[in-house]
Design brief:
Layout (H helix, E strand, L loop, with lengths): L2 H12 L2 E6 L5 H4 L4 H7 L3 H6 L10 H8 L6 H14 L8 H17 L2 H9 L2 E6 L15 E6 L19 H8 L6 H17 L4 E4 L14 H9 L7 H22 L3 E4 L14 H6 L5 E4 L7 H9 L3 E4 L3 H4 L1 H15 L4 E2 L7 H24 L5 H20 L2
Parallel strand pairs: 1-2, 2-3, 3-4, 4-5, 5-6, 6-7, 7-8
Helix pairs in contact: 1-17, 1-18, 6-17, 11-12, 14-16, 16-17, 17-18
The protein binds zinc ion (ZN).
Amino acid sequence: MTKISQELFSLFLESPKIDTHEHLLPPERFIESPDILFSILERSYLSWILSGTTGKSFNLTREELLSRVKTIPASSFYRYLIGAFQFMYEFQDNSLSQENWEGLSRQIRENYENNDMVKKWLSGRLNIQKIILDRYWIVGDFQVDREIFSPVLRLDPFFFGYNREARDHDGQSPYFYANREGIKVETFDEYLNLIDHIFQQGIKEGISALKLAIAYDRGLSFNQVTREKAEVAFYREAGEETLEEIVNFQDFIFHYSFQKAEELSLPVQIHTGPGKAFQAAPSLLGPILETYRAVKISIFHGGFPWVGEPGAMALFYPNLYLDLVWLPLLSPTFSRLALSEWIETTGGARIMMGGDSWNVEGAVGSILFNLETMARVLGEMVDTGYLSVTDAQEIGKMVLWSNPEEFFAS
Ligand SMILES: [Zn+2]
């Protein structure tokens, strides 16, 4: 990094932050593992590239992991973790090996046993004052530590309520909630009431936003569908629905959720980019932005690899927000390209960042990658004379604080 970028990086490190998106699991989940380092890597994006899946079937031994890691030394899904280990544990090496594994693992365990990791690293060292937490593994659960976390309502399971056996990509179904709460659902009306009920519960619990990651299950084109068409899949025997009927049902649920978002003044975070069959370019959401002009919509991940789309769209839709989240891990190069364009098109407004991780190590590595992206892009804008140092500093603070504050304000 150039001198000015380094100075900006130090400033951003200290600045108060809102982290727009995490999936942090309880620390016990890692402490209980006999090999804590392994369990941390297992719940990270490294496992995605090593297993060729979205982290769901990771059946490697430590030896297999180490030999596979040797084949992907430049992967950003690996580098961000090494960066976190260097930052948190004074890890001196540039890669994991049989020789440094036990030492690092011991240090991590000591840290977990003696500290509240979120307090020490995220609110302490990184000065993150608020984290928007997406606990997608429990439908309609909003139990989070309010001192730092704020929950979202995950919408994906609602798209799979056409029968009781259907599951979203995280294995979730809205009937888990209905069964838990003893809510009867026999008719399509009752199904919509169940959704209303979960929304009301979320409002009562002070959710910050709605979150949709349906791109892992299907493409992001959503037609306007009549209720009559939508309920066909609902009344079919389980497994007898045609693909077209399911799509109609889901399209209806999408618009139903957005009407709720409008009614209840809730912002929506949408995963774009990687997903089912790569049918999730941000521009597919153009018709949605035309229809719901009063709903604040945040496009996640820069729409990677379509990083040129969201910035262009933000020029024309003032309710569109751009979230760097995860993009710096997908490709640091594309994240710099995206951020440069976004700053030019939005002027610095409406841009945010987040960590998207399951443990503190992942979050630290990810946030550091976000900050480095910002420091490099803004530093270069200062070096070329496009921005003054003061403006570059201010834009950094906007991304870290005032933009997300505005997005999540109801
Ligand atoms: Zn996520």
